[in-house]
């Protein structure tokens, strides 16, 4: 196991050629970084849907790993710990967001899930 870890660490620089974090340093994104020394790599950061005319609206200090992880989320940040449906449920609902599991492939050390995320209309009863 130790040898596998050493080989992984030797190959890591090849996997992460672009280690720039300049997106996090843009003036409109700086306030979104809780810690000034913890920033996502430009080539691996989670990109939100941008709002036209709003600089930095696609930025959140989070990176894709084998799951989405935030680095030092701010106190007002919404964070969902488990966002995919449980094994015995086809879907999960969070407020007006419906998350369905499209596929799942299990590997020895991780699982790859394809999810469908939809905004649903909520019924109003009077």
TrEMBL record:
Highest taxon listed in the record's lineage: Eukaryota
Keywords for the protein's UniProt record, in alphabetical order: Signal
Family matches, as Pfam families: Y_phosphatase (PF00102)
Signal peptide from the UniProt entry: 1-17
GO MF assignments: protein tyrosine phosphatase activity
Gene3D superfamilies, sorted: Protein tyrosine phosphatase superfamily
Domain Tyrosine-protein phosphatase: 24-84
InterPro entries noted in UniProt: Prot-tyrosine_phosphatase-like, PTP_cat, RTP_Phos/Ushers
GO cellular component, one term: receptor complex
Protein name in UniProt: Tyrosine-protein phosphatase domain-containing protein
Top-level taxonomy: Eukaryota, Metazoa, Chordata, Craniata, Vertebrata
């Amino acid at each position: 196991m130790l040898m596998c870890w050493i080989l992984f660490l030797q190959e890591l620089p090849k996997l992460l050629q672009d280690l720039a974090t300049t997106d996090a340093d843009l003036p409109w994104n700086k306030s979104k970084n809780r810690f000034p020394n913890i920033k996502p790599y430009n080539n691996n950061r989670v990109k939100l849907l941008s709002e036209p005319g709003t600089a930095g609206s696609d930025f959140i200090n989070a990176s894709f790993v084998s799951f989405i992880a935030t680095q030092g989320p701010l106190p007002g940040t919404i964070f969902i710990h488990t966002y995919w449906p449980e094994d015995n449920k086809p879907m999960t609902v969070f407020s007006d967001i419906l998350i369905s599991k499209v596929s799942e492939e299990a590997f020895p050390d991780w699982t790859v899930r394809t999810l469908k995320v939809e905004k649903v209309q909520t019924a109003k009863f009077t």
